[in-house]
Amino acid sequence: MTDRPLPDRADAQSLAPAPSHPSARDTFPNPPFRDYWPAVEAHLRFTTQDTGSVENYVVCWREVEALDDPLFGRLGDLPLRAWTRTTAVRTLAALSDKTGGEPRSLSTLSCKVNAMAAVFRRASHDRHPLTDEPLFSRPNPFRAKMTLLREVFGNRELIARTSPHEVRPYTRDELNRLLAITRNRSRCDHLILLLCARCGLRRSEAIGLCWDDLNATARSLSVRRKASKPRNVAVRVSSQLKTENSRRTLPVPSDAWQGVLLWQEHCVLQASLGASPYTRYQQPSRRTAPHEPSPYLFPPRRPANTTAPVLDPDAWAGRLKTDLAKAGIDLAGRRHFAHNLRHTYASDLLARGADLVQVAKLLGDTLAVAEECYAHLVQSTRLRELADSLSEDI
Q1: Which residues on neighbouring strands pair with residue 214, listed in sequence order?
Q2: Where among 162, 193, 213 does a domain terminate?
Q3: Which residues pair with 210 in a beta bridge?
Q4: How many domains does the chain have?
Q5: pTM for the full model?
Q6: What average pLDDT values come out for the chain (394 residues) when binned by 10 residues?
């Protein structure tokens, strides 16, 4: 980030305009940031089904209120009407580095911008009971997320934070070895792995699938919900997906569809015996009476568990990491082991001639996100094709 001349503290205090009603100056509410965000948290918990994002927002708000800016002072004590675009830029710059000095990823910074934007979006709707003036009448200082990120970091550093080198899909040999390991260990984990690698699903989307989401005629599945596990909260299923584009319908390859049919037959049989679908023994259970199979493809491991309707996505990711080590796959330089299955799906599509528009639609991402993650794969493929064409002409 380039060094810019900073205004002094007097100029920073003058950025906040005076209330438009001088008579109501003393009674107009202008709470500090630390006193207002708990009300925003309560409102979000009441209006949304997905509390995982709220938990991440709370972590961000607590981090912001503890910041001590040399220009604006303690940000937690700064009144809402004193927040400007300059404050947003300095706040985001202070949040850009971890405690150890490493830069935060672009997705983490994006989440923090969303958390701060939610505060001032709510403040623009709250009004004074006497004057009917909004609590925050100016434009949201955290609006236009990508523009704000470019203003803080610049295009070059922003592209570096996307870390395209971290997108390391599994090779075909690595994926086959991993599928062989999971097939012998767990039928359930093998099917989740197939859905992530063959359909490009996120692990939360795969575990949140219902039997009603499958279309046997078209041999497709619809992504309508996700499974999440916020901090210190049981696993829950929400219809609020990551983005609006995440709600999509995907074709299912033949091997993954065959795995789905075998798993459905197994779940129906185990439910008729009163047993869990995760047990290998096909005999009547002495503890549980026969019951209807769960509406979810991957119910909890204990049928009597009413707090969690599906499997724990984090627990499956932990078992996947163990299977990767057993398969002898080099994990050096790789970070998101489960999410790399999604990158493997995208790279396979690009290798077979699909363009970025089709890949973005199947992944449920925007074209801009697909270009940031997979443009280098397209470029390397085209260069290889050009080199092969030269050898054919000779």
Answers
A1: 221
A2: 162
A3: 296
A4: 2
A5: 0.66
A6: 47 44 49 90 79 81 91 90 91 82 78 91 83 84 87 72 64 92 92 94 94 95 88 78 87 94 92 84 76 90 73 90 90 78 89 87 83 70 63 56
